Fold:
Amino acid sequence: MAENIKTLTEGIKGHAEDIVTPEKTAVSMGSGGLAVYATPRMLCMMEYTAWSSVEPYMEEGKGTVGTRLDVSHVSASPVGSHIRYESELTETDGRRLVFRVQAFDEAGLIGEGTHERFIINNQRFMDKTQKKLEQR
Structure:
């Protein structure tokens, strides 16, 4: 694990893009009544942008899981808008990774905040998760 963490440095950046389609609106996703870009979709894409930026640095069998999002959705985007996502790794603390995340449409900033992920052993994580089914 220690070797893995040493390869991660603050400043790693991620980028992603999305297009607002009717399926990605608040009314379609059940998070509101208007045909504007849904906050749950924005959050998902912010997580994706951060995750994909550090995934190439993970040693075999390791990965990251999201544990916290603190985000403001500051502007609505209509259907047809092009959304651009940016993430930057701003803090590493052992297995804990903190990212600044932002989203923009053609008119400017639509969302911003922080996202926290933890480095995990994929198999151990899944084994622990599956045990929940045995506890029912």
